[in-house]
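Tip: read the tokens left to right.
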């Protein structure tokens, strides 16, 4: 809703029907044009339209293969903003928490505009986080007509 309030065209995807219903209600109450859909992000058939988005946000959700699926959906020089939980110091990584440095390694070869690991600055999230804003670098071959 924040991005829609700034004038962005927003498509929200979530696996939770409840989350999508709440988003639809709240965005309608505020008069914000948000397209919201329930999607099974874990399905092998899940995909996004090619070169359709300038920005993709993945917030507090770790599905490692999802990062590969979103790359083709970004337009040239598109951005990914991702926030995932990481283990507390001394804890091992888990299926739901990325290892320290893991998010950064996923975006190796991208232009990193923001890269942070440490305590969450969001009071709703008490666990440490990894945050990244990465710009997809387009190869010179793709820029040729």
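Filled-in amino acids:
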């Amino acid at each position: 809703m924040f991005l829609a309030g700034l004038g962005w065209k927003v498509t929200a995807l979530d696996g939770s029907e409840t989350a999508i219903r709440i988003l639809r209600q709240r965005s309608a109450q505020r008069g914000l044009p948000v397209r919201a859909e329930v999607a099974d992000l874990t399905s092998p058939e899940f995909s996004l339209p090619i070169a359709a988005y300038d920005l993709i946000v993945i917030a507090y959700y770790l599905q490692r293969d999802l990062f590969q699926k979103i790359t083709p959906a970004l337009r040239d020089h598109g951005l990914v903003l991702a926030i995932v939980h990481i283990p507390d110091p001394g804890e091992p990584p888990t299926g739901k928490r990325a290892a320290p440095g893991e998010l950064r390694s996923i975006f190796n070869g991208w232009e990193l505009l923001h890269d942070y690991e440490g305590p969450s600055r969001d009071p709703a999230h008490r666990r440490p986080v990894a945050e990244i804003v990465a710009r997809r670098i387009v190869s010179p071959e793709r820029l040729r007509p």
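Helices lie at 2-5, 17-29, 66-70, 102-106, 140-143. Residues 68 and 139 are 17 Å apart (CA to CA).
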